Amino acid sequence: MTPLNAATLGAAAISVILADLRWLRVAQREHYLPGAVARFGWRWWTSTPLNIALAVVAVVSTGIATVAPAAALASAAVVAMGPAGLRLRGRTSRLAWTRRMSQVGLVIVGLEGLGISLAAAFGSPVDAVVAAASGAIAVPLLVDVALAVLRPVEDLLAQRYVGRASAVLARARPLVVGITGSYGKTTTKNYVAHLVAGHRSVVASPRSFNNRAGLARTVNEHLLPGTEVLVAEMGAYGPGEIAALCRWLKPEVAVITSIGPAHLERFGTLDRTLAAKAEITPTARVVVLNIDDERLDGLARRLDANQKVMRVSGTDENADVSVLESGDGLELRLGGKTAGVVVLAPGSPSPIRTNAACAVAVAIELGIEPEVVLRRLASLPSVPNRLQRYQAKAGYVVLDDTFNANPAGARIALDALVWEGREGRRVLVTPGMVELGKKQVMENAALAERAAAISTDLVIVGRTNRAALVEGCRQAGRPLSVKLVSTREEAVAWTREQLGPGDAVLFENDLPDHFP
Fold first, then answer.
1. Beta bridge partners of 391
2. Are strands 426-430 and 175-180 parallel, antiparallel or unpaired?
3. Average pLDDT over residues 82-90
4. pLDDT in tens, 359-389
5. Residue 454 to residues 357, 474, 476, 483, 508: CA-CA distances in angstroms?
């Protein structure tokens, strides 16, 4: 091997390592789902004219390297530095070398090393250079291969923790409340825990512990002898996942908060989403359904013949449980009759009524008296980053709604922005909403169109939904100041420079930096 070829091979190997670090972080942020990294790779390399040009340079240079190996230096340089905008070290979250990440790293290095070694052994030094350059370009695909190879291993490891958790549940024997839905799960879980805690000992799964590993960890680490109620938030990225959770958690009370386009990119259709969420119902003694959602209203009718169904609503006063607006507070209705009115403290966030109704239904089902529920309803906790209100030092109001934005929640948040900014500028800061599948462009355009009707300024963060948001503003046909920024930090700096007393800003969603 000539010195130039050796140097080129070394440069290509370094670029492979740098690409590994970059794309392994994406894999971690996407919960180690096979296929996700290649999808993000495509998004990034096609996100801007610069990245498209860099991708073309890398591919063409690798092709030229088959006859002129030094051309691979250009491929190595592009992969080492690109795609432009995806940092090697995360801005919002860094790569964490957990046990699982270390295993994925070892497998991908093995795959890359095997490819280069085979090219060198059965080909020529030039073939080894080309293999290294090609491997650097293909790192997102190789990461997905590694994730797929290791998935059965992870399933076996997870089953050990599930086995331990099953034994803990058998000893403690808590009543399990399972909560799922496209959105509103975390808020409802917190509401249930708050209402029940005044009467029975309760453990709720922490904020992000809503999959098999997280719920097993919740049981193994937090469920103590004497715990009477376990509130388990159940998330899913596809059919069968909630059914698998229910086989060992066995919820007696099942709650479905909503059916919407969250994770529609993975589910495909809302009917499949409904079917996946409904997997929580078969073994439950009682099913609590938010009938403000037409799909859940239909599910309630189907379940009536075989199960006890509690219909809840934030608008229908004749539902089994209703939590309705009432002046400066909330009216609680049970079976169509007023149980009482709760006055909220001045400045306190208004609870999400359908989520509150779901929680009240659970509390009533667990035997908590309506009078106790009413007292605790006045102090429902807010979820961090879910429409939290702050007063900035400069005098303007900040509404933080950066936790998992969805179309329904965004509409509520925009209504809050109208109220808070009624005397000054009303600013929406958003990167838009993601994982909405075929509805993503439409929903983001609708968000911008609605914002244009009630806001004075729109600050668009990043490129993921920029085109759809801009198009929504255009369709609105109303003058609106639009500011384009690359990061949330830039948006925050802009608001600090621009806003003052009487103004209000809504931060709607906050995409991690592995999104373009």
1. 397
2. unpaired
3. 89
4. 999 999 999 999 999 999 988 887 778 888 8
5. 29, 14, 11, 16, 15
Equal CATH topology for 173-377 and 388-508: no
Q: What is the DSSP string of 464-511?
A: TTHHHHHHHHHHHTS--EEEEESSHHHHHHHHHHH--TT-EEEEE---
Residue type, 280: I
At the top level of CATH, the class of 173-377 is alpha beta
* Residue extents of the structural domains in the chain: 3-152, 173-377, 388-508
7-11, 81-85, 200-204, 435-439: least confidently modelled range: 435-439
The whole-angstrom separation of Cα 299 and Cα 296 is 5
Alpha-carbon torsion, ordered 274, 276, 278, 283, to 10 deg: 170
Give me the amino acid identity at 191. Answer: Y
Position 85 pLDDT exceeds 70: yes
Q: How far from chain centre, in Å, is Cα 163? A: 27
Given the candidates 3.40.630.30, 3.90.190.20, 3.40.605.10, 3.30.70.120, the CATH classification of the domain at 388-508 is 3.90.190.20
Q: What is the full DSSP assignment across 191-241?
A: HHHHHHHTTS-EEE--TT--SHHHHHHHHHHH--TT--EEEEE---SSTTH
Short-list 281, 174, 326, CA closest to 289: 281
Q: How far apart are CA 174 and CA 380, in angstroms?
A: 23
Q: How far apart are CA 499 and CA 399, in angstroms?
A: 14
Q: Minimal CA–CA distance to 191: which of 308, 337, 328, 364?
A: 364
Task: Give the pair of three-digit tokens for residue 499.
Answer: 């806003």
Distances (CA, A) of 135 to 13, 149, 447: 9, 18, 41
Residues whose CB falls within 8 Å of the CB of residue 461, separated by 6 or more in sequence, listed in order: 429, 430, 431, 485, 486, 487, 488, 490, 491, 511
Q: Using the 8-state DSSP alphabet, how is residue 315 labeled?
A: S
* pLDDT, tens only, 3-37: 888 899 999 999 999 999 999 999 999 989 999 99
DSSP string, 76-125: HHHHHH-STT--SS-SS------HHHHHHHHHHHHHHHHHHHHHHHHS-H
Query: What is the predicted pLDDT for the residue at 277?
Result: 96
pLDDT band at residue 207 under the 50/70/90 scheme: confident
Q: Given the structure tokens 């004497």, which residue do they identify?
A: 226
For 369, the enclosing helix (H) or strand (E) is none
Q: Measure the CA–CA gap between 127 and 21, rounded to whole angstroms.
A: 25
